[in-house]
Amino acid sequence: MNDVLTAIKERRSIRKFKPEMPKKEDLEQIVEAGLYAASGMGRQSAIIVAVTDKEWRDKLSKANCSFGPWEESFDPFYGAPVVFIVLADPEAPTYLYDGSLVLGNMMLAAHSLGLGSIWIHRAKEEFDTAEWKDFLNTLGVEGNYVGIGHCAVGYIDGEVPEAAPRKANRVFWAE
Predict the structure, then answer these.
(1) Do residues 136 and 32 lie in contact, with contact meaning Cβ atoms separated by under 8 Å?
(2) What is the DSSP letter of 168?
(3) DSSP characters for 34-95?
(4) 56 within some domain
(5) How far is CA 145 from its chain centroid?
(6) Residue 1: its pLDDT value, please?
(7) Cα-Cα-Cα-Cα dihedral of 15, 18, 24, 29, to 10°?
(8) Number of domains in the chain
(9) Alpha-carbon torsion angle 165, 86, 113, 42, nearest 10
(10) What are phi and psi of 119, to 5 degrees?
(11) Domain boundaries, position 81
């Protein structure tokens, strides 16, 4: 089996990360993989915000937690030191799919570099608020963007989970 197919089968969502920051070169490669994701009509409607600053990362975690059913102290990013936020231009008819493909590419790239990752939702809710729209403005992001998801990344703390058995009767051939 080739490396890409192996990575697809071996990648798992990680829910416990070490606090150490991954190498910048690795983070740049993950971003680049996201930028090469397929997009509807080549529009490239998705953007990536790379959050490596601990203060911003912790503010984002707190905001994300507020949209879920958890205790206030819960970290929905499971201690990952890096959070890539994927947003997309809702004017593109395929914006949701475009952003989803970016996230998929990033998670596979992280795995290929020996890092763990997990897709975390609630980016839409976060970036519907004035606070997080202002955050984008402080970074120089112009335009209207909708939150698609977060890709939390870091070194895995512990064992990689086993794959769940694949459900039967999910493929139908029209031959």
Answers:
(1) no
(2) S
(3) HHTS--GGG---EEEEEE--HHHHHHHHHHHHHTTTS-TT--TTTT-SEEEEEEE-TTSTTH
(4) yes
(5) 16
(6) 81
(7) -30
(8) 1
(9) 90
(10) -85, 125
(11) 22-144
pLDDT in tens, 163-173: 999 999 999 99
Q: How far apart are CA 86 and CA 54, in angstroms?
A: 18
pLDDT digits (tens, 9 = 90+) for 84-124: 999 999 999 999 999 999 999 999 999 999 999 999 999 99
97 belongs to a structural domain: yes
Residue 113 neighbours by CB distance under 10 Å: 17
Structure-token pair, residue 30: 């993950």
Tokens of 105: 């590419």
Beta bridge partners of 46: 88
74 located within any domain: yes
Amino acid, res. 26:
D
pTM of the model as a whole: 0.96
Is 35 contained in some domain? yes
Which one, of 134, 141, 125, lies nearest residue 76 by Cα? 125
Q: What is the mean pLDDT of residues 33-58?
A: 98
Both structure tokens of 66: 């507020």
**Quick one: tokens of 9?**
């089968």
3-class DSSP state of 121: coil
Residues with Cβ within 8 Å of 73's Cβ and at least 6 positions away in sequence, in order, are none
CATH number, domain at 56?
3.40.109.10
Phi, psi of 138 (to 5 degrees): -65, -25
